[in-house]
Design brief:
The protein is mostly beta strands. It contains three helices and twelve strands. Helices cover 10% and strands 30% of the residues. It has a six-stranded antiparallel beta barrel. The protein has a four-stranded mixed sheet with strand order 9-12-11-10. The protein has a two-stranded antiparallel sheet with strand order 4-5. β11 and β12 form a beta hairpin. The radius of gyration is 20 Å and the shape is globular.
Length: 243
Amino acid sequence: MVDRLPGGVAELPPIQPIGRVRTPFPERFGIPRQGGLVEAIPGTLDLDAPHDRPEAWQGIEAFSHLWLVTWFHAGKGQGGLTVRPPRLGGNRRLGVFATRAPYRPNPMGLSLVRLAEADLSGPRARIVIRGPDLLDRTPLLDVKPYVPYCDAVPDARGGFAATAPDPLLRVVWTDAARRRAEAEAGRHAGLVALIEAVLAADPRPAYQKSAGRQYGVRLYDLDVHWRVVEGVVEVLGVQRVGA
C-alpha cells in the first residue's frame, strides 16, 4: 500500500543530498543576499558517490551558469507567513512567497552561480563555481544548467527588488591589515580581492548602518574587522580565528 499525504497525494520519498557546497563562509554574516552578485567568491561542489562520477557531469562544460538547489541546514528554516525583506529596510512585512527569504515552509534554497571549471579527467568530477551565496558545507540537493532562452525574461517585473542593490562601496585598508591579508593569501588564493568584494557589497543589516561602528566578518578561518565611514569601507585588521 502507498502511504498518502492529506489530499490523496502519495507520500514524498526522503530527500538525500548529493554533496555539499564549499564556500569561504563559516558564518552567515557577510554572505551576499543573492547568488552571482559577488563573483569574487570562490566555491566548489564537494560531491558524494555516485554523483561525483564524471559521466554524471558530461556536457556541463557547455554551460556558463548553474542553478544550485540546496537545503538550509544551520538555523534557517520554517518561519511565519510573512517576513521582513532586507531590501525594504526590515521595516515592512511581505508574504513569504513574495520574497526570497531563507525562512521557508521547507528550508530549500535556489542559487544562481557561474561555472568556473569542470574537470572530468579524473575518477571524481571537480566542479568549481563563482558567486555562491551559501554557508560553507550547505547540503546540495540538485544542480541544473542555466538555460538563457527560457530562464532569462527581459520584460519580467521584479516587484520590490526591481533594480540592483545600491552601488558598491569603496574599500580602503590600513597598512597592517593589507600586509596580513597578503600574507594569508598563500593559504587562501585571491583573499584580498575576496575581502574587498564582500565588504564593497555592504553586508551590514539595512536597519543597522551607523557610521563608524566596527564589524567583523568571518572568511575561511579569518576574522576581518572593518567599519564604514562616509560611505567608505576601512579594513582595520585580519586575524586568524583563535590567534
